[in-house]
Structures are given as C-alpha cells and as structure tokens.
Amino acid sequence: MDRDSGAGDVAAGLDLQGLDPGRIPVHVGLIMDGNGRWARARNLPRTAGHAAGEAVLFECVEGAVAVGLRWLSAYTFSTENWSRDPDEVAFLMWFNEDILLRRLVSLDRMGVRLHFAGDLDDPRIPDRNRAHMQNAAARTRHNGRLELVLAFNYGGRAEVTAAVRSLAADAASGRLDPGSITERHIEARLSVPGMPDPDVIVRTSGEMRISNFLLWGSAYAELVFTSTLWPDFGAQGLVDAIVEYQRRGRRFGGVLPAPE
Ligand code: IPE
Ligand code: IPE
Ligand code: MG
C-alpha cells in the first residue's frame, strides 16, 4: 500500500486469512448501531459513542480500500432519527459537517468518491452542513477507487416515495407512458443512480432489523448481524463480515448448482 493512500496502517493490521480475494462483494452496506450503548457502558455521553463510531467508519473505509471493495454505504442518520433528543440531533448535524471538514482531504487522497443518499433539501439540515456535503461530492467526483455512500437523512420508504412521485409527475405531463414503467425506471430515480444493490448488509449491536435502510436494493442482500457494538467493530469487523458473506449460497430465487 503506498503511503499516500492513507490506508497503510489499517491494512497492515488486518487478518485476511479466510478471505477469498476473488470473491469480494461489490457493495457492502453498514447499519452502524450501538454507539449510545457503547457510551453508556463507559458512563460517557451518547455523543462520545458517535465520536468513537466515526473513527471506526473511517477505519472501515481504509479496510474497504485495502480489500478492493468498490462500494461501501453507511447509514449515518435516518429520517426517524429526528425523533431523538434535540441536543443529540444538533450534535449529529454539526458532527456530519465536522467529519467532512476533517476527513475530506484524506478521503480524496485515497481515491474515495463521496455520494450522499437521503433528502438533503430538508430545511431542518443546517445550510452549512448541506454545503459541505455538496462540496465533498463535487470535489471527489473524479475518484474511482471506492464509492462511499453516506446515507444521511435517509429513509428507504422516503426514497422510493420520491422516485414514484417524480415518475408520476412525468406520467401526468405526458412525458412517460405509465404502462412502460419498469423496475429500472424506479432505480434510476433513487438517491444515487447507478449504485449497485448491496450484496451484503451488516448490522451491529445485536438488533436484527433493517430500520428503513436501502429497502429497494436490499431485496436479495445477504444479512449479517453481529452483537458487537459499532465503536468496537473496526476494519476487521468488515473483513469478517465479508468472510461470512462468502460462506453464503446466494440463489436469487433459483437453485444452487449441484456439488461436483
Ligand atoms: C447508531 O447508534 C448511530 C445513529 C443512529 C446515529 P445509536 O445512537 O442508535 O446507538 P444505540 O442504538 O442507542 O446504542
Ligand atoms: C439505524 O439505527 C439508523 C442508523 C444507524 C443511522 P437506529 O438506532 O436509529 O435504529 P432503531 O431505532 O434501533 O431501529
Ligand atoms: Mg440504535
């Protein structure tokens, strides 16, 4: 790993035994859960859990680059997270902006392209935060080593609803024949057009639910659940989840080929 990539230290510490480098998934989705419980166990405020979790996300980005993953998506703030205590919401809004300020140069140097999935037009998002997201996406748009999707103010139902609303507008104005609408039309109007379906979705903290993450694309995703709290996950957690994914027999409604 060249020094400039910024991925050297994390890559050097990874145990890659058991990983089949020929069958790396294209897209891993991360539901980063358990920051609050991690903090509570240490008598720290919940926000300290989010800070520890942020460092782990960037270790995972480095790990993803090291194993050759092409797409990594991470759930950073859900449309339902607005229901939290206003202080925690305010922290998360500020923190998102702060992360982009601190990490953008090293992400750019690593060849990471940033995308944002979610409703960024929501007036509850501070303007400065929105501007940082737009700037980060624009600045990294020519990078191609890893596509990093930050799902911010993201909800799977809201995303599909927005796609349907835009198709309905085109149909109502006569630009689109409703009878010709296919799944591809919906996919093209999701938050990040061209984002492949996640092959595997990982959720930490022992909760076994999707919580409105990537509802459309997760139709055939392999689900990996771990009781590890997000701040304890680390880049090795990502590698272990990929190893678990490689043990699965994906069928997509068909049948597995007979053993030799
Ligand atoms: C996930 O950790 C981070 C966000 C939802 C922003 P939580 O904050 O949900 O942590 P727990 O689930 O309360 O432990
Ligand atoms: C999912 O975690 C959202 C993010 C990780 C950003 P939550 O903690 O919000 O999910 P629930 O409430 O346990 O389902
Ligand atoms: Mg949670």
Query: Quick one: how many beta strands?
Result: 6
Query: Which structural category fits the helices and strands?
Result: alpha/beta
Bound molecules: 3-methylbut-3-enyl trihydrogen diphosphate, magnesium ion
Shape: globular
The count of helical stretches stands at 8
**Cα-to-Cα separation, first versus last residue:** 38 Å
Low-confidence stretches: 1-6
- Proportion of beta-strand residues: 5-15%
Give me the strand/helix succession: HEHHEHEHEHHEEH
* Global mean pLDDT: 95
Helix content: 40-55%
Written description of the protein model:
This protein has 260 residues and is α/β, with parallel strands linked by helices. Helices cover 42% and strands 14% of the residues. The protein contains eight helices and six strands, in the order H-E-H-H-E-H-E-H-E-H-H-E-E-H. It has helices at residues 8-12, 35-40, 46-67, 86-110, 127-139, 156-172, 183-188, 234-247, and strands at 27-31, 71-78, 112-117, 146-154, 200-203, 222-225. A six-stranded parallel sheet has the order 3-4-2-1-5-6, sandwiched between helices. Helix 5 (127-139) links the parallel strand 3 (112-117) and strand 4 (146-154). Helix 3 packs parallel to helix 4 and helix 4 packs parallel to helix 5 (127-139). The protein is globular and about 55 Å long. Mean pLDDT is 95; it is low at 1-6. Residues 32-37, 77, 81, 92, 205 line the site of one 3-methylbut-3-enyl trihydrogen diphosphate. The site of one 3-methylbut-3-enyl trihydrogen diphosphate has 11 residues, from strand 2.
